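Thread: "does anyone have the structure for this chain?"

Original post by V.I.:
We have the sequence but no experimental structure in hand. Need at least a predicted one for the grant figures.
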Amino acid sequence: MNVYARDLQDTVSDNKENYFIHGVGGVWGNTTGKGLAYRHRVNDFSVQLAFMPIVRDMKYDFEITTGLTFMYKLSDAKYVDLFVYQANQHRYLTESSWNCSPGEICPSVVPWWPVEKKHYYEASIGFGFDFLLWNRLSLNLMLGYAAKENFTKYLIEPGAGLFFKF
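Reply from O.Q.:
Generated one for you, tokens below.
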């Protein structure tokens, strides 16, 4: 092996975490999505997809959350990266309306009980940090300005994720 090839191999092994382009894990954010997530990285750009169904009663009471987040890395350090992000989330809910007084036992759900179906679109933009915990495990913390519930509420929203990179 010549000297140039050995130096190149040492450089690649020293910066191995920079060559992982896939990540799987879990995320929790009110605009980045919740649940299981996949992240794909191309140079300094990343795209993250998240999905989680919450089922309380399959027919009358459930929520499906999907998220799509775009990230651009601003600085690259050995153990932490700074990035900007733009996140989008869609929530689909069905809820049964209960009109029970406190302490009263509500009747079981019946087919003619009113069920509300709701769609919420939410988006945010902000900054985040990606901390390298171990060689392939990273913790992602984000904070951004969010437009929630079909862009009717505006507030600061946090987000977090834990990813295994490969």
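V.I.: this helps a lot. The chain has a mean pLDDT of 83.
O.Q.: and The first strand starts at residue 22 and ends at 29.
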